[in-house]
Design goal:
Helix content: 40-55%
Number of strands: 10
Shape: globular
Radius of gyration: 19 Å
Structural class: alpha+beta
Strand order of the largest sheet: 1-2-9-4-7-10
Strand content: 15-25%
Length: 268
Amino acid sequence: MAKPQAKLWRVQALNNVECLKAIGINHAFDRHIHNGFGLAVVDQGRLAYRTEAGDHLLEPGDVLVINPGQVHWGGTVDGDRYSYRIVYPACETVARAMPGQDDPRLPYFANNQIRDRCLTQRLQHLMTALENDPITLAQETFLTQILAELVTRHADQSIDPLTPESQIVQCIRDYLEAFYRQNPSLTELANLVQMKPLRLLRTFRKAMGLPPHAYLLQVRIHHAKAQLAQGHAIAEVAIDTGFADQSHFTRHFKRFVGVTPGQYVLGC
């Protein structure tokens, strides 16, 4: 397998869709979520993918679909190296590509692992175009076509996306997203919703698949990515988003994103 490397870039003309190409890595991702969808294809090796619903082992040619807000983790199998490519279309991008316009709900994929040779070939073609084709019309055409095909053939549209219904959970999410620079205690969060800390912890964990502190890290990383894309210095972003220092920030950023902040900036 080739020398380990990871390349991350955005396609500005396509709503800043984020793309990642990883070759020969053995990275293990911690539990995390994405605001939009994730669509990946395994090129070499084996990729472990885990959710609350179960475990998957992806082989070369397998397609992985990640739903917005779906907690997942995984990566290397027994420390072995693997190669994959992934694109992260925003929810509105997927909504525009849906064949029908009457249903306001986003598609939901109950089966994250897909074995569909035609879809695999189209996704590989799309990723190559997003990396190398300078023609926006071609890139947008391939992306729209593959999203429409994915929804038509593999989505379970009778199931709503994973959006928590609990007002208590939503209150805590809103608070953490508004005050992500702060370091609230579990007791402080529990007092906001007039619950005991342990009950809040269990309620939030059940609804989100993550405890509040892990969700807060996700929010900070999301804001950090936005600031890095705007050209802010890494050290400045680290402090502004609530991390202790640049080292602390870099460690968590790599765990969740798969590349360092410096590598992320190069793809801006």
